[in-house]
Amino acid sequence: MLKMSLSVxxxxxxxxxxxxxxxxIPTDQVQWGPAPPVFPKGAQLAVMSGNPSSDGLYxxxxxxxxxxxxxxxxxxTAENVTVLSGNFxxxxxxxxxxxxxxxxxxxGYAEAPAGMNHFAWTTSETVVQVHGQGPFAITYVxxxxxxxxxx
Length: 151
What we know:
By secondary structure, this protein is mainly beta. It is about 10% helix and about 40% strand. It has one helix and eleven strands, in the order H-E-E-E-E-E-E-E-E-E-E-E. The chain has one helix spanning about 1-20, and strands spanning about 35, 45-50, 55-65, 70-75, 80-85, 90, 100-105, 110, 120, 125-135, 140. It has a six-stranded antiparallel beta sheet with strand order 1-2-3-10-5-8, with no helix packed on it. A five-stranded antiparallel beta sheet has the order 7-6-9-4-11, with no helix packed on it. The longest helix has 17 residues, at about 1-20.
């Protein structure tokens, strides 16, 4: 029993040392704020790593209420999305069409290459993690759908 306890302690000490210069963010310390105006009102964003508005790798989380909708859009770089909680629906195309979407739940993953038009909506409070190569930007297929233009 003592050997196992010492082994566990040694593992924890090595693990703690490995993260000394890295990033560790416990769930209760994620810093949420309003999502940028390019997203429809109601979402919150947390930057986990990097700076999504500049060159380089970034990781962000987007928390959306039930019924949240993101109109058809694309990005200049690939977008990688992992669903952390909730019901996230995604589809590819030039306009938001629920019949053309697929539901992803916790653990689901989607990738949209640069320039691919896609859309999303939620049917419960949902948190997704998005990572990629910055700078992150959104171009709406229909410019009238861009929430930053109407605020």
